[in-house]
Amino acid sequence: MTAIRRSLFLFLLALWLPRHAWAEAELIVLTDNRHPLAWIEKGKPRGIAYDLVVATMKELGLTPTIEFVSFMRGMKMAQHHDNYVFFSVTRTPDRSDKFKWAGPLLQNDIYVYKLKGNPAQIRSLADLEKLGGVGVPKGMSQDTYLTNGGLHNIMRSDTLANTLRSLVNKRVDAIAMGQATLPSTAKEIGLEMAQLEETPLMLYENPLHIAFSKNVSDETVQRWQKALDKVKQEKYKQLINTYLR
């Protein structure tokens, strides 16, 4: 489409659409590859968070176009550029005022895990400090939490799968991972959950949200929230059974 035709198309679209629909049609929606939240399997995107957002967009009358990027890039685009939407994001205190928010999509509480048979007693951050290394996915909420907690033996990996591999390969003694995402991540790398042990240390509750660029209107965010609430009421149990059972 030439620049002139595109400009004419956007002008006519602006005349035809209601103001809020025009604003929502401009949004660029991003997510990252994280089992079971969102991933691409045999060329087809799927996942519990992905399906929830697709259904939410359809409820709003939008065409569900969602681009996969790295977690770090998604956060950067939504924070520093206008008209972006990125999911699934933990609403931590340091992120709270950098975005506008809708959610939660689902709960993914963060626990510390070790290999079965590892005798280490892990009940506190002080116990973590004594370990040879604690694995986290780089830039995600558990990285921020443990860094802010003063932990000095953090080892960062670029994906959830590589974080788990660092534990399996004994490059670290424990990892911080979400309860909802760990089983799918283990399956992804061919690991049986029976080989892992959840320690008593829950770092924090972790509801996952949709993050919007700060320029997105409150009205638009509220419409997304209302649509998401309706979708969850109708489809949430089915999606839980599909992806988390």
UniProtKB/TrEMBL annotation:
What InterPro entries does the entry give? Solute-binding_3/MltF_N (IPR001638)
- Per the UniProt entry, the signal peptide is 1-23
Q: Would the keyword Signal turn up in this protein's UniProt record? A: yes
Q: Which domain of life is it from?
A: Bacteria
Enumerate the spans annotated as Solute-binding protein family 3/N-terminal domain. Answer: 28-244
Its taxonomic path starts at:
Bacteria, Pseudomonadati, Pseudomonadota, Betaproteobacteria, Neisseriales
Query: This chain belongs to which protein, by name?
Result: Polar amino acid transport system substrate-binding protein
Coiled-coil spans in chain: none
Tell me which PANTHER family the record gives. PERIPLASMIC SUBSTRATE BINDING PROTEIN FAMILY 3, SOLUTE-BINDING PROTEIN FAMILY 3_N-TERMINAL DOMAIN-CONTAINING PROTEIN
Which Pfam families does the annotation name? SBP_bac_3
Keywords in alphabetical order: Signal
